[in-house]
Amino acid sequence: MKMTSLCKRIVDFTAAVLGLIVLSPVLVLISICIWISMGRPIFFRQVRPGYRTRPFTIVKFRTMTVGDTAATHTSDASRLTSLGAFLRRFSIDEIPQLWNVLIGDMSLVGPRPLLMEYLDRYTPDQGRRHDVKPGITGWAQIQGRQDILFSRRLMLDVWYVDHQSLWLDLKILLWTMSKMVHGSGVLSGQDVRDVDDLGLHPMMRREGSRHD
Length: 212
What we know:
Elements: H1 2-22, H2 24-38, E1 43-49, E2 55-61, H3 82-89, H4 97-102, E3 107-109, E4 135-137, H5 139-142, H6 150-163, H7 166-182, H8 202-210
Parallel strand pairs: 3-4
Antiparallel strand pairs: 1-2
């Protein structure tokens, strides 16, 4: 397992360096487009749980107008811009996370880092999704991305933890690139209530308490 982890880190680091170099013109172009259409900041930053739940700051291209964070809203539709919707559809907003991979907070492949507020709601088994580094893409993402319920997402994340390998990572990366080209599985401005069957989101908890 240690050798696999070392090989994965080497692949992650190499791919992140090459990706940032090759995609630098795209990064500059998108940054300019965001600055012109939405102003500053260019990037969205948020603290997420990483390996062993250690907090780190995830970096994405900003896709919404400046306002309250996603932790207090179940739908982003009212704040999502047309440029932001385009960036999300083809997962272009995720490219800056190559920096997170480069510095070792994330991997190319692993469970997607969710909100810190979810941590105390996981079962011990669901919490095992943090036994590996979070990824830019993962097994759950190629199985449906935002089209599947939270309970299934977490189950697929744990399955990946138990079956991870370099060959599985390669399969996930190739499948992810196919989905990116077609822009499938992305629901811009999604209402969390449509997929949160576990009551993980703070808004779901407040709604639940009003019905108790």
